[in-house]
Amino acid sequence: MTPIFVDTGFWLALKNKDDKWHVEASQVWEKVLSGELTDLFTTDYVLGETVSHVLRNKSWGSWERAKDIGSMILESKEVKSVHVEGTDVGRGWEIFLKYQHADLTFTDCVSMAVMDRLGSKKVMGFDSDFEEVGRGYELVDG
Fold first, then answer.
1. By residue range, what is the domain housing residue 134?
2. pLDDT value of residue 130
3. How many independent structural domains does the chain possess?
4. pTM tops 0.90, yes or no
5. According to the model, what pLDDT value does residue 2 have?
């Protein structure tokens, strides 16, 4: 089975009931918990981006929520946490420079490098930027 990358937007939507993608994220997560969706991974960069986003979000975030979502990611038995390697950072920087007009964060670019290294083309998230850069990535449907 092809590994599926879990992006920051998925984690945020799953934990924030006010997020426009919350219902869909919850439905997808049920498929994960039931074993219907497997071979999932995220990265330490995504963990950092997610926790930081929750800490800085004035309307929804808090230290407690950041701790909750960070613990969920780190302790998940369903989603493997992959450490970004030095070569991923260098490749991510190349991707960042190449797609300067796309709406990509540096974490997105490093995530693409990790996905390439692991042979993944599937993204669990709601950010169409992965598809729009034309590198063959596709969002996983709920």
1. 4-84+120-139
2. 84
3. 1
4. yes
5. 84
